């Protein structure tokens, strides 16, 4: 059974769009790469990081990767550069750097 009929959605006018937008399938956030929205990217300093994983707990986009209970990198395809990870890092191991060449 088809949950949502989005056939031809790219050609829909605003009157056909449902209120609150359309979410064709649950759990589709992984398919939507949102990293292009970012103007700053988080960079981790491995020497300062204590692997407390506060960055992982607080990341609203699940863009902090963890492997074997340790920080394993950032998912830049989905990280929007909000900087929450840098704000919650107690040891200053994450720095936000401009990636658009603007000051």
Tell me what you see in this structure.
With 103 residues, the chain is mainly beta. Helices cover 10% and strands 18% of the residues. It has two helices and four strands. Strands 1-4 form a two-stranded antiparallel sheet. It has a two-stranded antiparallel ribbon with strand order 2-3. Strand 2 (64-67) and strand 3 form a beta hairpin. The N and C termini lie far apart (51 Å). The model has no long low-confidence stretch (mean pLDDT 87).
List the helices and strands and how they pair.
Elements: E1 40-44, H1 54-58, E2 64-67, E3 70-74, H2 84-88, E4 94-98
Antiparallel strand pairs: 1-4, 2-3
* Rg result: 18 Å
Helix content: under 10%
Roughly how many Å apart are the termini? 51 Å
Which geometry do the CA atoms define? elongated
Strand order across the largest sheet: 1-4
- One letter per element, helices H and strands E, the order comes to EHEEHE
Oligomer: single chain
Structural class, by secondary structure, is: mainly beta
Major sheet size, sense and barrel closure: 2 strands, antiparallel
How much strand content do the residues show? 15-25%
Q: List the uncertain runs.
A: none
Average predicted confidence as pLDDT:
87
Number of helices: 2
- Count the E strands: 4
Short characterization:
The chain is mainly beta and 103 residues long. The strands form two sheets. The protein has a two-stranded antiparallel ribbon. Strands 2-3 form a two-stranded antiparallel sheet. The protein contains two helices and four strands; from the N terminus they run βαββαβ.
